[in-house]
């Protein structure tokens, strides 16, 4: 495939993902508000922690998908359908085996933990068990369908992903209506309807892939080496995946034990905001990740390094550009959105966004490591550091009993992880840390300092909607100016100039 075709494909996928993001943002903001009001803080927090407990096992889905995407992307780069069919079949079997193992764990140890260790009001125990079982169904189906999703991403076929996601969002609007009109238990109704949507979406992906990729032949392979290769790659990624779970749902359960479900509701809302804002950089990375993997597979080393450094800066700028207005006006946004947000929601949101900003800078390094394939050393250093998040947070909570502690610990761990990613990747690849810092860290730090100081001084906390709109526009205009003048080098500025009017911004990925 020519470079021009790669560029066009990245642009197409990026635009499709951003259209999806805009639609889903408005849907999400509306549905979260109504669902929170209908369920109440306690039930909303209960769903967050019980459903999140099952979501802990999602680390396996993420790990398998990352490995599968890498193998599929390499096969697709040469359009080797025989190899792809074999890899796909092997991964499907592996996913099914892991699914059976996790089903047994969730119905024994998991059920015991939910019924005896989590803080759940006695009168809501039945509803909690229903939420738990339905969450297991959704998780297991997502695990089985993971290879199909990995195939779509590896083939950069993200338009259909955007369309289905919008359908999923619109379906959640219907859930809101049904919740408002239903006379049955609201929490159980909510869990049942979400499970039905999950089943419908995953079944559609399977049917679509079977139609879209007729050359993909599924059968059971008995080649032990193929299974060994896939499992070996996945095993080391499990360290990072487990660390991610401990940081996310592990902390969520610890906070439930220390502070109860209302704090879980505040944390859940804060992460809803974070997910919406994070999508601005994640959509860009979702379109770029396959290009990073394929450029390495094809031996395009200069382009490989360029994609790493460019995406590191851009993913951070996209996230910070949107996050800063929210952070400066967080109290007004929450009161406008939820009327009476739970205590700590505003400070939780700010700390989570800071954590996300730190992590976003070196996230492309993770993709680069997957492309190189040498994940053992990486996970034994970066993954182990990440695992420390939960025990450190728990130990400090015992001492200080402050709900802010886990968030502060997470930020510190993210900083250490960012530095360790660079050092570790340098051991795996001919990679100049100083060059990376000059191109990425230094401009990011300068831009961040100027944006926070100047925007914080010029734009006070909003107290009405026109004030909020004015603040947001002013902040974004000033931020865009700072990013362009200081955050970009001469080559990147020239790319921006050539992108308007009507030229392809993604041409920056050319040699």
UniProtKB/TrEMBL annotation:
Any single GO CC term annotated in Swiss-Prot or TrEMBL for this entry: plasma membrane
Transmembrane spans: 21-40, 46-67, 88-114, 134-153, 160-181, 187-208, 344-365, 377-398, 404-424, 436-459, 465-487
Membrane topology of the entry: Multi-pass membrane protein
Compartment(s) where it occurs, according to its Swiss-Prot or TrEMBL record: Cell membrane
Keyword tags: Cell membrane, Membrane, Transmembrane, Transmembrane helix
Major subcellular location class: membrane
Protein name: Membrane protein involved in the export of O-antigen and teichoic acid
Source species: Propionispira arboris
